[in-house]
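Dear colleague,

As promised, here are the two records you asked about, laid out in our usual form so they can be pasted straight into your sheet.

NAME FIELD: protein one
SEQUENCE, THEN STRUCTURE:
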Amino acid sequence: MIIKLIQGQDFSGLEHYLTHKREHEIIGHRGVSSPEAAAEEMNLVAAERPDVKVPALHVIFAASPSDWAKMCPALWSELTSAFEAEFSLGEHQKLEVEHPHPDKQTNGPHRHSAYNKVHPFTFALPAKGREGRSSWDTAASHRAWKVADIFAERHGLTRVADPTKVDAGGRIPNWMIKREQQDGIVPVAVRAEKIRNALSKPDWSSRLTSLAELGLKIAPTFPRGVSQEDGNAIAGIRIVDAANSHNFVKASAFGREFSYEALERSRAPGSPELSKVLGNEDVGQASERASLARPFDVHSLYHLEFEKELKTWRRERGKVNRQREKMLARHKGERSELTQKLSSERLEVLKGTPLALHPAAREMFNRMQAEPRRSALSDKQAGELRGLRNARKPVWSEWLESKAASGDTKAAELLRNMSSKYRNVRLKAEQASPVAPSKATEHCEADGSAKSVNEAPHEASAEREVELRPDLANHLSSAADPSLGAAAVPPLGPPDIDEDFLRLQAMDQFRKGGSRTNSLA
C-alpha cells in the first residue's frame, strides 16, 4: 500500500483533475452540497483563513498490482478512515473519487481524496504537529507510510518495507531496478535478509565465508587522502557482487548495526580485525592514494587540511554576509525613520513661520538639524559595518609558509622541495623554448650605427636573471677564465625532473586554478 500527499493553493484545479481529465467514479463527499460545487465551497471556507497559503490537501491511495483484486470498497473505506484519524481530518470537507483504470503515476486502480485543511465551522487547522508545511514534509510522509504499513500488515497485503525486497533504508533505487530490467543484473540489495544473516556471524572469517557462498565479497572504503603508510584507516565496507564490481550496496544500508564500526565492536573477543583477515591486497592497496609516491601523499594531505580551513572561511564569510544583510536592512529602516522624523519637525517649524521666510527657515533647519543628525547616523552605521568585515581569504602558499613558520617540519620540507623543484621546472621550460626575437624598429644614431630599442630591456633582463638565479651566477664566476673567454664556460644543463613530481605539479596547478609561473614568482 502507498499513500502519497500533495498540497496546493486552490481547489478548482484539483477538482478538474479528479473529475474531468479522466474516467472517474464519485465515491462520496462531506461538508459540501454536491461534487460539482465542492471546489467553490471549499474555496469559500479557505478564504476565511487568508494566512493559510496551501489549504488543499490531495491524498492518493494506491495498492500493489498483486492486491488489486483484494481491495474491496470496505477495505478502501477502512484505509481512508485510518488516514483521517491519524491526521485529524474526520470533520473537514472532503471529495473522494476513484479512478478505475491505470495511469502514469499508480499503474492501477486507485482512489483520490481532496481535503480542505481549514475546518468548515471553527476555521482551525488540524492539531499542531499533525500536518506538515509542504508536500515533501518528512514527518507527514512517514506517518502516512505508517498508516499504510499497519493496514497492509493487518490484511495480509504487500508492504512497502518488505525486508526480502528492500534494504533498511527504503526501496531499491530506481537505477538498480532499471539495470535489472535492461541487463538482467539482480541488485545485491535484493538478498538483504541473507546478507544480514551473513554479517551477523561472530567473526570476520565466518562472515566472509558466508558471503562467499552467496557469490559476494567485502570491499573496504577509505577516507580521502589516506595511504597504506598511514596505517589502517577503513571508513566503511561495501557488499560487492564477486562477478560484477559495479553491483554493490553499502553495509550500513541494512541498518546501523551493520556499519563497519558496529561490526568491529560486535566481533568475538580475540578474533582478528577486518584488515588482518582481508590482507594487504584488499586493505590499503584498494585506496588510490596508496599507489602514489610519498611526497605526493604529503602534498595532498596538506592540501586537504588547507581545503578544510578554506571551507571554514567560506562558512564564516556566509555568516558575516547574512549579518551584514540584516544590518543593512536595519540601517535602511533607521534612515527612513529619521527622514520621516525630520520632515515632521520641519513642518512644525514652518507652521509658525511667515510664508516669505519658508526658504530661509528650510535652509537653516537643514543646516542646524537635518545635516548633523544624518551625519551622526551615517557615522554610527559605518562603525557598525566596520565590525563585520570578512577575514582575508586563505592562500595556499601563505598558509603553507605559516605552517612551516610555526614549527611544522613536514610543511617546511615540502615548501623547500616545492620551491626547488618548481624553480627547476621553470628553468627547463625557459631553456627549451627561447624567446622569439621581437619586431623592434631600429633607430639610426649620429655615427650611422643601428641600435634596437629593445636592447636595453634585454640587458636589464639578463641582470635580473643573474640576480634571481644565484646558482647561475656562481656557475659563471667559478667556471669563467678571462684568458680563454666565454667559450671556457661549460653549459648549464637542465635539471632532472621525475615523473612523480610532474604529477604533483599538475595537481597543484589544477587546484590553484592559476598560472604556475606567476604563483612562484
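NAME FIELD: protein two
SEQUENCE, THEN STRUCTURE:
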Amino acid sequence: MRSSGTGTMRFNRVHHCPLTDVSNMKKHERGKLSFRPDAKSGVIVVRWHDNSFVIVGSIHFKVNPPSQKHIQVSILSPTALLGTTKNKGGTDRMDENIGFYRPGIRIKNCICL
C-alpha cells in the first residue's frame, strides 16, 4: 500500500532540484510555475510565483491541468497547491481559535497539600 502526501517546502530543502531560478521567474508575471518530477520516487516538486514564491512537493497530485484561483485577480495555480490549501484547515483553525479565545489563567495565593 502506497501512502500519498502533499506539502509545502522551504527553499533550502530543494537547492539540488533543477527548478527555474527565482531571479528568472521574477521577470514573468504571477501564475508562472516551474516543476520537476522524479521518476524513481514519484515526487513532483513545483515552484509557483504568486505574491511570493511557493514550493510544493506532492506524490498525490499532478501539476496539470492548472485551475484558476479567484481571489481578486484570476491567476493560474497548480493542482498540487490547491490540494494543499484545501486540506489545511485543522491546525490553522485551532491557532485561530486559541488566538480569539485565549484562556485567562490567574492563580491567587493558594497552598495545595
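A couple of things worth noting about protein two: The chain has a mean pLDDT of 72. The two ends are 54 Å apart (CA to CA).

Best,
R.
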